[in-house]
Amino acid sequence: MSRRMSRGQRQSAFEALAAAMYEELEDWYDEHPEASFEEVEAQAREKRRTLMGAGLALLVNGRDSGYALEGQPCAQCGREMAYKGQGFGKTIHGLEGDTRLERAYYVCPACGETLFPPG
Ligand SMILES: [Zn+2]
User: Fold this and answer.
1) Model's pTM, two decimal places?
2) How far does residue 71's CA lie from ligand 1's centre (Å)?
3) How far is the CA of 95 from the centre of ligand 1 (A)?
4) Exposed e or buried b for every residue in 24-42, given b needs 16+ CB within 10 A?
5) How does residue 65 score in pLDDT terms, banded at 50, 70 and 90?
């Protein structure tokens, strides 16, 4: 997942996810023309969870992952912490879907101390 996307980039990425979800529903309905409305709804409900989980990941991860804390001094030795990228995130099983939250990760080049900004 890209971090620090612009608002327009996040929106475009979400629209692409939504369009793909809609296409999947179209394909499924093509293959199940006799499906009841409840069966169509059941398909949509599961895909909605996937879509919203991914959409919320875009919203949160695309906006900020603690990158602004770059330059923070090491708590052990005072050297400037080095940004090491994204990782060590966690998955939130939320009301709207499962969302993988990413976090920025820093390591001290002198003593190896690590930093995971909260959030
Ligand atoms: Zn250090």
Assistant:
1) 0.65
2) 12
3) 40
4) eeeeeeeeeeeeeeeeeee
5) low
- The CA-to-CA distance between both ends of the chain, in Å, stands at 17
Q: Say how many Å lie between the CA of residue 111 and the centre of ligand 1.
A: 4
* One-letter identity of residue 91: T
Please say if the pLDDT value at position 40 is more than 90. yes
CA distance 92 to 73: 30
In the reported structure, the alpha carbon of residue 46 is separated from the centroid of ligand 1 by a whole-number distance in angstroms of 46
Closest CA to 99 of 53, 52, 55: 53
- For 48-64, letters b (16+ CB in 10 Å) and e give bbebbbbbbbbbbbbee
**Segment 60-76 mean pLDDT:** 71
**Cβ proximity of 5 and 60 under 8 Å:** no
107 Cα to the center of ligand 1, angstroms: 8
Ligand 1 centre to CA of 80 (Å) is 8
